[in-house]
Amino acid sequence: MNASPEMSIPHMETDVLVIGYGFAGAVAAITAHDCGAKVVIVEKMPRAGGNSCYSAGNFGVVRPRASAAFAQYLDRLNLGMTPYDVFEAYAQGSEQLEKWFSALGGELVPRISALANTFPGVVEGPAFPKIAPSRKMFDIRIAKGPAELPPALRMWDFLSRNVSKRGIEIQLSCRARELTRAADGAIVGAVVEHNGQLRRISANRAVVLTCGGFENAPELLNNFVASKPIMFAGSPGNTGDGVKMAQLVGADLWHMAQTATLIGYKAAEYDAAFCIFFRAPGFIYVDKYGERYIDETAIELHDFDRVFSHFDPVNIEYPRIPSWAIFNERTLKAGPLTWSIAGYNRDKYQWSADNQAEIDRGWIVKAATLDLLAERLGLRSETLKHTFYTYNTACETGKDSVFDREPTSLELLRPPYYAIPLHPVMVNTQGGPKRDARARVIDPNNNPIPRLYAAGELGSIWGPLYDGAGNLTECLVFGRIAGQNASGETPYDS
Ligand SMILES: Cc1cc2nc3c(=O)[nH]c(=O)nc-3n(C[C@H](O)[C@H](O)[C@H](O)COP(=O)(O)OP(=O)(O)OC[C@H]3O[C@@H](n4cnc5c(N)ncnc54)[C@H](O)[C@@H]3O)c2cc1C
To answer: Which stretch of DSSP H or E encloses residue 167?
Structure first.
């Protein structure tokens, strides 16, 4: 596609063009507008909201005066993959969120604990307690909103109303195809496609990329993400367009191999996977060979890509994909194995409260003996029996000498047995164009690409370890930073 200025396609003008209308796009647009810029948002899907609207809606608010300590904590988690001043900007921005919300007529409330007492599910406690007591530095919040809406839609209600009330122009089913670059390298707009028609939108001040991640871009996943295959729980619109557009104008990329990945079940009938949680501790994970491989209760909820990506170079396979979760009757009865508030399947399938419908569908396997279980799961009976013997002995003695699982979380597995196949299930990718503390997209020489900004999941600040609620925080914090700095550019003198 030729995006040269001579292109004879319809043309419109704005100050700031925001590409992608999820939380980050909404916040960038609101902020740029409030700083005096004319803003246009383009969104490729017929319905706005992106991954954001399928999220659990949790974000983190750093406690007063805790941002310096929080930046240090983030630095330790990220092993040098993100410059320190970017974390400082994030931590300071998070500390200001409460004030920003109330200035816009919103209110923050403690999150709805959909996963309380869940194993694994350290979302309640410190995510990485061996590094720092992070939950003493920030609190997880959701936006206050209509009680009948799940938390993410309460936030969307708040943000989209703020966008509408400002009269910001939104173009749906309008896909940005290519950024437009002036002779001096400045980004001065984009070519977009609507109903098969191309159109040029000039952005006199700046373009903000908020087009989310690449969870539905098989080629990018194959190239960059370690676990294979990896499933996805969110919106189908996130196909990595922003990565490609940024690359084409010379952006450096970062964090392409990082994801927020849970465990989940992929039913053939549904495109997206169901995230799976256990609400009682009577469960273990075994690999393709029926062997346990980890303390199942100690993993931060979002870091399962690290666990599943274990590769066996002798047999040339990922022995943990799929794994089996095997659990007891008490765990089955403790509640539905998935959540009702989040995920693309939220509006498509209602998981039964007692998991019985999913047993009937064959999604959950039930067996009265270990021999039968092994047969149904295609595992060697002797191996499975040995795994059970070792695990149940640990429960009886209160000591898991193999994986050191906490004695309080060791619960005997007795018949009947239940099992569900587990895949790594991404809630989001983290990679994309590298950005600085001012949300400017930068090139491989660390120079900002003039007038190009990014916020949210596309090129997020998160490196190797992710602490839950951090992506939405980032949408809000960097959405604000990008909106402010984009609107502050002097009008382009072409
Ligand atoms: C099940 C689930 C639960 C989650 N829970 C949480 C949570 O509680 N807390 C948390 O912090 N994170 C959570 N996340 C992750 C979080 O939702 C995302 O990281 C975040 O919403 C990303 O927001 P965004 O605005 O950057 O992108 P999105 O909300 O994905 O928006 C990007 C938009 O850009 C559009 N777009 C893409 N390409 C183009 C193009 N070429 N032209 C125009 N538009 C384009 C997309 O269609 C999309 O609407 C969860 C994710 C899932 C799936």
So the answer is: none
Among candidate residues 374, 395, 426, the one where a domain is terminated: 426
The number of domains in the chain is 2
Q: Would you say 23 and 48 are in contact if contact means Cβ atoms under 8 Å apart?
A: no
Q: Is position 492 within any domain? A: no
At residue 494, the pLDDT reads 55
**pLDDT number for residue 104:** 97
Q: What is the CA radius of gyration of the chain?
A: 23
Nearest CA to ligand 1 atom 3: 55
Ligand 1: which residues within 6 Å by Cβ?
Answer: 19-25, 42-45, 48, 50-52, 54-59, 175-176, 210-212, 233-235, 237-238, 241, 342-343, 427-428, 456-458, 469-472, 475
pLDDT digits (tens, 9 = 90+) for 248-275: 999 999 999 999 999 999 999 999 999 9
Do 198 and 142 belong together in one domain? Answer: yes
Extract the residue ranges of the chain whose pLDDT is less than 70: 1-9, 112-127, 133-135, 494
The set of residues, in sequence order, having a beta carbon less than 8 Å from that of 147 and lying 6+ positions away, is: none
Indicate which CATH number applies to the domain containing 344. 3.90.700.10
What local confidence, expressed as pLDDT, does residue 129 receive? 72
* 2 within a domain of the structure (yes/no): no
Gap between the Cα atoms of 295 and 245, Å rounded: 41
> What is the domain extent for residue 460?
11-257+430-487
* Residue 329 parent element (H or E): helix 329-333
Q: 414 near 395, Cβ under 8 Å?
A: no
| 249 & 338 share domain | no
